[in-house]
Amino acid sequence: MSGAGDVLEVRDLKVYYYTLTGVVKAVDEVSLNVKEAEVLGIAGESGCGKSTLGYALLGLIPPPGRIAGGSVVLDGTDLTKLSEGELRKIRWSKVSMIFQGAMNVLNPVYTVGHQMSEPLIIHKGYTQKEALNVVSEALKQVGLNPEIVKRYPHELSGGMKQRVVIAMALLLKPKLVIADEPTTALDVVIQAQIINLLKKIKQEEKTSMIFITHDLSLISEIADKVAVMYAGKIAEVGPSEEIFYNPQHPYTQGLLKSIPRLRSKEKITWIPGVPPDLRRPPPGCRFYPRCPYAMDICRREEPKPIKVGDQHYVACWLHAKS
């Protein structure tokens, strides 16, 4: 699933939370790759491990969680081998994150200008004046008036705050930007503006992105490639068109059938049941308790990724049988 020109290569990544009631396998042996100027969409139900995966790529897993295995190679460097001090030098400069919920990210007691200047001062050694000049240009890039450097977060609308967070993530022109639910709690008009902005940044800056969301309709607008996660694992990954028009995993098929379509008379359905407890996941395929096509082997053995098309892989025994 990897190849030449990969900006990011993740192999067999494990992120476990060691709690008093058991080990939560939030991300379990996940492998994926992202090329230059490519957008990888990561989709799945709440609790499937999408955000945990994003935080792990930056080495920001909070206790009692930790990376229990695997590698995260960014531009030739395995981030899992670096110390916290070395990771700080890479965050924002080579990889940055658009965090979920801008109001929770921005510090309410500092102005926008103060907060946006900090990465430039720390990583580039700019003076406050030099940093503010760069910040003003960054705000223009995301369609904001540079005068908001003097404002506090509470003085901005939700869409403006989200644009500030995007501008912060792009300040140092990183090779990879991780967008974790960047349009959550925004109305559809602002959502469309944010998606168009991210498309523009990808084209102009050749920035690679990971776009994390539970909303498949948003992913269809921006992603070149889609990875569908279920219960901490990758169920299916492939080019966006193949995932949406020729889904191979029963879980992916179920997700797509749950999306309302204006021009379709097909009845909206849903996936029965709930995701498993990741402290005690079922043996074999983790989706089999909810799968309409479950076979005996699904209960016993875990399926491995099988190639079903050009760069299209699915972890399902239905395809191993054929």
Automatic annotation (TrEMBL):
InterPro entries: AAA+_ATPase (IPR003593), ABC_transporter-like_ATP-bd (IPR003439), ABC_transporter-like_CS (IPR017871), Oligopep_ABC_C (IPR013563), P-loop_NTPase (IPR027417). Residues 10-256 form the ABC transporter domain. GO terms for biological process: peptide transport. Keywords: ATP-binding, Nucleotide-binding, Transport. Pfam families: ABC_tran, oligo_HPY. The keyword Protein biosynthesis does not apply. SMART domains: AAA. GO terms for molecular function: ATP binding; ATP hydrolysis activity. The keyword ATP-binding applies. PANTHER family: MALTOSE ABC TRANSPORTER, ATP-BINDING PROTEIN (PTHR43067:SF3), OLIGOPEPTIDE/DIPEPTIDE ABC TRANSPORTER, ATPASE SUBUNIT (PTHR43067). This is Dipeptide/oligopeptide/nickel ABC transporter ATP-binding protein. The lineage of its organism: Archaea, Thermoproteota, Thermoprotei, Desulfurococcales, Desulfurococcaceae.
